[in-house]
Structure to design on (472 residues):
């Protein structure tokens, strides 16, 4: 056993990264549990257009098939991060990108599920090409320090608002946009009581995580998730009845959404071929821009948090991490799911001590095992994983001390990067508006020499995208 552990240590350079096998395993489990909600939400979102259209049979098949596709797609992407890139990042279908796939491409534009998968596949192939020639690395290097330093705290606020929303602590309000859940609803029954109970479970989990972390107890995030899940049982938040043992049907329906159903001919069968090609190209660019800057933002933010920045300020093993991300996008489409990308929830495992690809290996194996152990995954409620996101947000926000607020030409772009992420619910929007305002501030203050040509070109592309392309 010690010999096997030694081999693992050497392959992943665990000791060299001041970690341990135990810490890496706990971090991998933490990442998986934090992102496990995607195994439930992604099938629901991608099947929803057919629910809205009244095709319940097709919706059921897609939901079942996409569950398997989500597990396999996440496994492929994350195992690449583990064995090829050897970085502690996880990959899974991206939230927001799946909504764009479902509600804009399928429901809004009328494409079939198989045709929409082709668009995702093409964007994945495009990513593989530009990563192979080094263009994505060049794009990362073109991001100015004013924006780079703001990405980590921006992501911290972004995942915090995701956690607050998933917990039911922050709710929508037509007058003020958002507001606090009404904790006085414990006196009544129904949906309001359920929402209040969810919020209480999440707050309890958050306090437990904070207490354990303050006492320097290893696995504080994972232990907090488990504790919140148990607390949720008597409060009616954790539902043991969510057990779903019918795995066989999910495998049968997997054929309905896998690569054999990708409809290349149908996608390009329009009467006006020029218009069809233009529309498909715009969709591919739209998917690619959001995916690229979501993954770049997550990569930079998580790398800084984990200490994976070299003396030149660049992400260690960046090209391998980017290629893993590119391959998983194409592979995800082939197994029937929307864009697979590096997920921000990787930060939970990093916060738990993950520093090497061993963290990703554990997460990848759990994604694969989730196919058989879906009943256990489905029991953990959003209220139990939400405090993990909020807690990691606390840790990431601490990096705001690195932001230069003394120079307004840097402060404004940094501020836009930070606030646009949570308030537009998109990492890509934060990076985009950070770059756009950076170029404008430098050009209008007579410091155009600070603006790289590629930085300006990317900013122009984003301006064109916002002006002429449908937002997801």
């Amino acid at each position: 056993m010690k010999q096997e552990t030694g081999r693992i240590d050497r392959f992943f350079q665990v000791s060299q990264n001041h970690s341990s096998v135990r810490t890496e395993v706990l971090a991998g489990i933490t990442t998986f549990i934090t992102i496990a909600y995607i195994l439930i939400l992604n099938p629901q979102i991608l099947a929803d257009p057919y629910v809205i259209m009244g095709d319940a049979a097709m919706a059921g098949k897609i939901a079942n098939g996409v569950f398997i596709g989500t597990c396999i797609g996440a496994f492929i992407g994350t195992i690449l991060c583990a064995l090829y890139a050897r970085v502690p990042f996880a990959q899974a279908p991206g939230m927001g990108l799946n909504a764009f796939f479902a509600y804009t491409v399928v429901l809004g534009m009328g494409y079939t599920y198989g045709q929409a998968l082709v668009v995702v596949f093409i964007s994945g192939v495009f990513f593989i090409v530009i990563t192979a020639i080094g263009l994505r690395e060049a794009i990362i290097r073109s991001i100015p320090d004013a924006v780079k330093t703001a990405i980590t705290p921006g992501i911290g606020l972004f995942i915090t608002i995701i956690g607050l929303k998933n917990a039911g602590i922050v709710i929508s309000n037509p007058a003020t946009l958002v507001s606090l859940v009404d904790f006085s609803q414990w006196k009544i029954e129904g949906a309001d009581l359920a929402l209040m109970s969810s919020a209480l479970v999440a707050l309890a989990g958050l306090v437990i995580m904070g207490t354990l972390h303050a006492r320097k107890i290893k696995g504080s995030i994972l232990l907090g998730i488990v504790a919140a899940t148990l607390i949720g049982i008597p409060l009616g938040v954790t539902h043991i009845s969510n057990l779903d043992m019918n795995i066989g049907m999910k495998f049968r329906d997997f054929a309905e959404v896998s690569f054999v159903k990708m409809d290349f001919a149908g996608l390009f069968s329009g009467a006006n071929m020029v218009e069809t090609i233009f529309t498909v190209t715009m969709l591919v660019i739209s998917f690619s821009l959001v995916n690229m800057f979501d993954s770049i933002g997550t990569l930079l933010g998580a790398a800084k948090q984990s200490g994976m920045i070299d003396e030149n300020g660049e992400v260690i093993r960046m090209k391998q991490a980017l290629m893993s991300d590119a391959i998983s996008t194409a592979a995800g489409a082939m197994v029937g799911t929307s864009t697979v990308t590096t997920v921000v929830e990787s930060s939970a495992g990093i916060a738990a001590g993950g520093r090497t690809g061993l963290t990703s290996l554990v997460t990848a194996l759990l994604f694969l095992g989730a196919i058989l152990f879906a009943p256990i995954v489905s029991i953990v409620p959003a209220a139990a994983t939400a405090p993990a996101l909020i807690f990691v947000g606390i840790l990431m926000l601490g990096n705001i001390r690195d932001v230069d607020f003394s120079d307004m030409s840097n402060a404004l772009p940094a501020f836009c990067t930070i606030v646009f992420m949570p308030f537009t619910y998109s990492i890509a929007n934060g990076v985009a508006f950070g770059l756009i305002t950076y170029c404008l501030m430098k050009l209008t203050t007579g410091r155009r020499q600070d603006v790289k040509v590629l930085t300006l070109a990317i900013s122009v592309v984003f301006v064109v995208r916002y002006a002429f392309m449908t937002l997801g």
Observations:
- The chain has a mean pLDDT of 85.
- The radius of gyration is 22 Å.
- The chain has one domain: 9-466.
